[in-house]
Amino acid sequence: MVLLVVAVGGVLVFANSAGGGGEGGGSISATDEDEADAEEETGSGTEYVSLPNLCDEAVDSSILAPFFEDGIPTLIGGFNEGTGSMDSSYGTLDCSVESSHVLVEINAELVDLEDPQTQRELEGIFDGTEFNEEFMDGQSLPGEIHEEDFGLDMTASYLWDQTKVGDQSVVLVMATDAGEDFSDIPDASNSFAVGFFLTDNIAGSIVVNDSEGGRDVRELFNTVDSASGDLAKQLERVAVKK
């Protein structure tokens, strides 16, 4: 998927919503029609199919305050209907904001949970294998900080774990410390984090990249987890179901 790259341990269970009527026949009453109209107006249904066109209408940027020291810049981007990494996706929200050395990206893809390819992609996101093998040779356990020493005073710290946002979620944090020998090299020290979540059929992420580094790994993990939870709730409030 475009927005979901790697993730963390667990088994992803898909619960597909299915509408069903009661036994017996009968005509639709005026009350039934009124309820159906009300349901359509409030956007209730089985799957989310669209989000506001502009990022500042979809996301309250105040959730990004912990990542910026001098105020929050304006979110750029919006929702593109019918686009996404999957042919079956209803659309994708792509937002970004950058100030000084901090870049934050927010993404949300409205996916079809019944699509087999989507199911495979999401399972790969949330089982942790790709991240663990790519960056830590399978050595890192969820919830434990893994340290790497590359010599010449250059080190890296990794932390990943499942969290409790939406139906499935995971946060990944990577931080490098270049040490004194490489302190004059731009971006040699870096703090990177991403929170992935699945809530209903909204597959979302928030990505934080601080090119100056120096952030505490555990603290950054908790901050991204909190922001992911706020983002998931906001997207559910503004998304429209069919």
UniProtKB/TrEMBL annotation:
| Entry superkingdom | Bacteria
Stretches for region Disordered: 21-48
Q: Where is the composition biased (Acidic residues)?
A: 31-42
Official protein name in the record: DUF3558 domain-containing protein
Q: What is the lineage of its organism?
A: Bacteria, Bacillati, Actinomycetota, Actinomycetes, Streptosporangiales
